[in-house]
């Protein structure tokens, strides 16, 4: 094995085998020469190094986290997106690998040439649509039968989602994503020649109880101007990073300390039926779910932080902090 150091006993055994004819030196040389020959498929040209592929993976790890936050806020449900794989394949092979009917969003990314394709599996696309229309995120898809309203809603949400691509690219260069086409049939989409090398980043996506893939297809022509930047050396150094000025940290700390945050002392809560709510009248009593002997929950920016007891101070209502709030959302603050 290359780089392996043999012991004296192993060297002696090897020389003995060669001298007795158990091993043939010519056969060893021939075997070594055969190992140097590699099959190369010109239709599947590898135009990116492993180092550059790793850099693209790191960049899209960040994009996946941003998309997770975006869709969680928009859909109000559990969303988890992560990079499953990053591969370089011919464009034709990528088109054959996706469903015959799917959701295809084509984007320009000026100042770079060419287009970037975001393919969304129909399961995921319809789960997004169902949540936006007030459903539970069910995925009963019929992509070829999309109505004009459904098409508009889908294209709008994915266009807004892809705007976050700008932030994912910020370490390389400033881009301005712009949606140019929305299609459902891959056969009608010809971004580059069939044998053109593209990088496909597959994002494993879960929305509620629905799972599927989102694929980002980037042709070589798009990445060509930034290939020198797709290296570990470039990513490890940060030319835009400025040294912190003296007193900058203290100044930031003072500003944060002067920031105002809302504080609420919550007496308690309960739930009633709409019928009972509409029938409420002056003098009615609503029973809370909390006992009067239990401490109040004090929320800072809607996050439970302390327990307290009510009282008065200078003829005004007041609370006295008893302890820090344990459990729940205390790690969010």
UniProtKB/TrEMBL annotation:
Transmembrane stretches, start-end: none
Biological process terms in GO annotation: bacterial-type flagellum-dependent swarming motility; positive chemotaxis
Gene Ontology annotations for the cellular component aspect, listed alphabetically: bacterial-type flagellum basal body; plasma membrane
Main subcellular location of this protein, as a coarse class: other
Locations listed in the record: Bacterial flagellum basal body; Cell membrane
Membrane topology, as annotated: Peripheral membrane protein
InterPro entries per record: CheC-like_sf (IPR028976), Flag_FliM (IPR001689), FliN-like_C (IPR001543), SpoA-like_sf (IPR036429)
SUPFAM superfamilies xrefs: CheC-like, Surface presentation of antigens (SPOA)
Keyword set, alphabetical order: Bacterial flagellum, Cell membrane, Cell projection, Chemotaxis, Cilium, Flagellar rotation, Flagellum, Membrane
Superkingdom: Bacteria
UniProt GO molecular function: cytoskeletal motor activity
Domain Flagellar motor switch protein FliN-like C-terminal per the UniProt entry, residue ranges: 255-323
Family: Belongs to the FliM family.
Annotated protein name in UniProt: Flagellar motor switch protein FliM
Species of provenance: Pseudobacillus wudalianchiensis
